[in-house]
Amino acid sequence: MKTDKPARLRSFAKINLGLEIHGRRDDGYHLLRTVFQTIDMYDDILIETSEEKGCTVAGDLPGVDWGENNTISRAYRILDREFGLPMGFHVYVHKRIPPGSGLGGGSGNAAVCMLFFAHRAGLEIGEPLWIELAARVGADVPFFLAGGTALAEGIGEKLTLLEDFRAPSLVLMLPGVEVSTARVYRGFSLTRKAGESKIEVFLQTRRMAVLENDLETVAFGYHPEIRAAKKALRAAGCEFAAMSGSGGAVFGIPDPGPTRALDVPGFRPVRCRLVSRKEYQERIGAWPSGKAPVFGAGIRRFESSRPSTSPTGRSK
User: Fold this and answer.
1) Given 80, 140, 164, 255, the catalytic residue
2) What are the pLDDT digits (tens) for 109-154?
3) What is the 3-state secondary structure (H, E, C) of 198-242?
């Protein structure tokens, strides 16, 4: 039985301003350093609370697993096992963020729903435990508890909140193909170049031109059209262009204006802008007041004591 009016949430996408792989854990998961940034592309989520326990998830995009393996379902089960949630939820997702695009759609869905479930149940959870719980769902999920700009290390469970990165609007090239994160990570050869981390240089200078994505070469080999999309962005006038995450979306900063030069088969150009941490927390809708009770302004660094080994963790 439903107990209240539906709540409407927004689950924003992210891009990786840069991504470096520095090693591999004993269990095979890759160790990385990346700078996450939220952007104003988002999925709409409708949630109804029920007196009956459990979480059902549905959505409007065929091919997505809306069953028990969905990240939202896993987020509910983790909170329920930890705290014993007194109610259930019916969740419907209107997808705008393409799956397998490196934009964190599933991870963002899980994080904002997790925050809403906890708020609806009246749970008081401190910052370190929040990171631990989110990391059990997936490697990128902790970032979406806070949004804005953040440095992630380890497999994503070591999170440092950064001052919001400022940049003009950007263009996303959205792929028509879903890229397998597991396949891209499996294809990566761990041969680190000597020298200073490009991300460390960026953190000191805020110059995007120094940044790289170590996974691009692998993804380009599997999907040459991703390389073509990046070249088109540079040719159109973007000062910086890169693949996000493990692909296949590519972004260019700043927005070059007319998109005539961005006619790449299999890709659709979309204009976006960056979303600050304050705007992110106000707009996701997890709290009626619009103010996040989770991450205070003075909080900078978090680390999970039990990093994810879930199916959405970094691939072996």
Assistant:
1) 140
2) 999 999 999 999 999 998 889 999 999 999 899 999 999 999 999 9
3) HHHHHHHHCCHHHCCECCHHHHHHHCHHHHHHHHHHHHHCCCEEE
Candidate CATH numbers 3.40.50.2300, 3.30.230.10, 3.40.640.10, 3.20.20.140; the one for domain 7-163+275-295: 3.30.230.10
Tell me the C-alpha distance between 226 and 219, whole Å: 8
Annotated catalytic residue 14: yes
Q: How does pLDDT run across 256-305, given as a tens digit for each residue?
A: 887 677 889 999 999 999 999 999 999 999 876 555 555 654 445 555 44
Q: Is the dihedral of CA 158, 161, 167, 173 positive or negative?
A: positive
- pLDDT in the model for residue 10: 98
User: How many Cα neighbours within 13 Å face the side chain of 258?
Assistant: 2
Establish whether 230 is a catalytic residue. Answer: no
**What is the pairing mode between strands 30-50 and 88-94?**
antiparallel
Per-residue pLDDT tens digits for 65-102: 999 999 999 999 999 999 999 999 999 999 999 999 99
Handedness of CA 180, 109, 59, 267 (dihedral sign): negative
